[in-house]
Structures are given as C-alpha cells and as structure tokens.
Design goal:
Layout (H helix, E strand, L loop, with lengths): L1 E8 L3 H10 L5 E6 L6 E9 L4 H11 L2 E6 L15 E6 L1 E7 L7
Helix pairs in contact: 1-2
Length: about 110
C-alpha cells in the first residue's frame, strides 16, 4: 500500500475530486495555502493499493492542468520592498509525494 500526498491548485479541486470518486478511490481533503503566492491549494491524502498506484497517478496527471498567470508577488515580510511589477508564473499541476505504508488499520 502507498500513501499519496498530492498538493493541487484550488482551481482543479472539483474536477480531481469527481475523477477520484468515479474511480472508486478515496481521499481526505485538506485546505492549505501555498507559501509563494499565498493562494489556496487542495492537499489530498490517499491510501492506494500498490496495484492501483499508476491509475491514481494518471487521474491526478489528467485532471491537474498547468497554466500561466500574471500576478504581483506579495512580500514575505512587511519590511520587504514592495514591487508592483507583475510577473508571469506557472501555476497548477500537482506535487505528489508517494510513501510506502508499513501498516494500515481501518477502525
């Protein structure tokens, strides 16, 4: 069994949750915030049988699209120089961590 931790852009959240449900997979949804843009993310925690790992990754790949947006970066600290120059960044897609699970208990 594998534990998937997937960090996904909020814009893709409904599409990915629907696709996971249609495939008969289960996920725990956490609302999280990214550090750079301070924008909303969806973090999914999924327990996936080894034989369904490729299927789960493909569902994530198909439903998490990358796109380019223009934004004005928000400084991390109040004393940082504030820039009003918009920059183009790539958002979306997914960051997925796959971990081995030694034990799984459903209680």
């Amino acid at each position: 069994m594998k534990l998937l931790i997937a960090i996904i852009n909020n814009d893709d959240s409904h599409r990915i949750l629907n696709a996971i449900g249609r495939a008969g997979l289960y996920a725990t949804k956490l609302s999280t915030t990214g550090g750079f843009l301070r924008s909303g993310n969806l973090t999914l925690i999924m327990g996936v049988d080894d034989e369904r790992l490729d299927e789960a990754l493909e569902i994530l790949r198909r439903n998490c699209s990358k796109r380019v947006e223009t934004t004005t970066p928000i400084p991390a600290f109040a004393d940082d120089m504030i820039s009003s120059v918009p920059v183009k960044i790539t958002v979306g897609g997914a960051v997925v961590f796959v971990l081995d699970v030694d034990q799984f208990h459903k209680m």
